[in-house]
Each structure stands twice: as structure tokens, then as C-alpha cells.
Amino acid sequence: MPKYDYELFQNLYDKKLNDQQVALQANCPASAVFKWRKKLGLPKNVARSKQGKIIKPLAKALHDDCLVDNEIAKIFHCSPSSIEKWRGEENLPSNVEIRKWAEENSAILNPPKRRAVLV
Predict the structure, then answer these.
(1) Buried/exposed 36-70: b ≥16 CB within 10 Å, e otherwise
(2) What is the pLDDT of residue 50?
(3) Which own/partner contact pairs does 44-53 have at CB distance under 8 Å and 24+ positions apart?
(4) Nearest by Cα to 13 from 3, 23, 1, 4
(5) Which residues of the chain fall short of a pLDDT of 70?
(6) What is the pLDDT of residues 48-62, one digit of tens each?
(7) Residue ranges of the domains in the chain?
């Protein structure tokens, strides 16, 4: 049976993330989070309003993972301009240039693995 980081589950749950969002951050199935939450008798967190409210801790984590505005907007079911406005309020830079640089320099960042040659 796989072991999960239940302390991480609790920290993310306390930040009002729902089961799917906790699972995304903990890199595990949402069913594992659901079972953990039910075992503790915790109510579910509502992820967002019908208008697509941005959950700041999750948005910040996604931004830190180098997602660009339109990718974050898809997760929150809102417009990229809403994410851009949120970034401005948080004084966060756009990840577009960082992503472009990383793609252009992927060979430097991820050089091919070399095999040892026995002589």
C-alpha cells in the first residue's frame, strides 16, 4: 500500500484546497485524499465559486512551477487577464520569458546522459 504525506495533505487542506487540488500538489490520486479526509471526518473544501475564484496559495504554487497565465487560468476556470491581475497584486513576474528561455536552453539545462566507456 503506497504511503502518502498526510502532513502535506493537512497543510493544503488547511489552506482551503479541495481534494483534487491537494492531490495535484501532493502528486497522488484524489481518491487517496478523499479517503484520508473521510477517515478524519473532515468536510470537503469548496474549490472555487461559480465565477472561478482564484485560490491564491495554489495559484502561487502553480506560478512557482513556471506555469504561464493561460495555463493557470484553465485550472481555475477564469480568464488569463484575471490571473494577470492577480499576479500584479502579488508583484509576481510573468513566466513567459522564463519559459521561453528554458525552452531555448533545454540542451544546457538537461544535457544528454553520457555512458561510461570501458577500455
Answers:
(1) bbeeeeeeebebbeeeeebbeebbbbbbeeebbbe
(2) 45
(3) 44/18, 44/19, 45/13, 45/16, 45/17, 45/18, 45/19, 46/18, 47/17, 47/18, 47/20, 47/21, 48/76, 48/77, 51/78, 52/76, 52/77, 52/78, 52/82, 53/78
(4) 23
(5) 1-2, 47-52, 109-119
(6) 544 468 888 999 999
(7) 6-40, 56-107
pTM of the model: 0.47
Q: What is the dihedral of CA 12, 44, 82, 24, to 10 degrees?
A: 50
Q: What is the Cα–Cα distance from 13 to 9, expressed in whole angstroms?
A: 6
